[in-house]
Amino acid sequence: MISFARAFIISGLILLIIGLLFYFFPKLHFFPKLPGDIYIKKQNFTFYFPLASCILGSLFVTVVFWFFSRR
After folding, report:
1. Alpha carbon of 27 to those of 9, 15, 43: distances in Å?
2. Would you kindly state where each structural domain of the chain is located, as residue ranges?
C-alpha cells in the first residue's frame, strides 16, 4: 500500500510542476502542432483537437509507467 501512496504523491508532484509551468509560462508549448492534429477554422469558429499530440503524450506516459513498474 505504501508504493501505491508513493505513486500518487509522485504523480501529484509532476502534475503540480506542469501546472506551474503552464501558469508562469503561458506561451510555453510542450508539443508543437503535429501533422495529425485536427484544426478547423471558420469565420467565427475555431476547433482544435491535438490527436497526434495526445497519442505522443500517451506513449510517453506509458513508457514512464512501464519503466517504474519494472522496479
Report:
1. 28, 18, 25
2. 1-26, 31-71
Q: Which letter does DSSP use for residue 3 in this model?
A: H
> DSSP states of 8-71 as a string?
HHHHHHHHHHHHHHHHH-TT--SS---TT-EEEE-SS-EEEE-HHHHHHHHHHHHHHHHHHHT-
Q: Could you read off the pLDDT tens digit of each residue along the chain, which spans 71 residues?
A: 778 888 889 889 999 998 888 788 877 766 667 788 888 999 999 998 888 888 988 998 899 888 878 76
What pLDDT score was predicted for residue 42?
A: 92
Is residue 1 classed as helix, strand or coil in its secondary structure? coil
**Could you tell me which of 64, 67, 69 has the C-alpha nearest to residue 14?**
64
What distance in Å separates the CA atoms of residue 52 and residue 17, rounded to the nearest whole number?
23
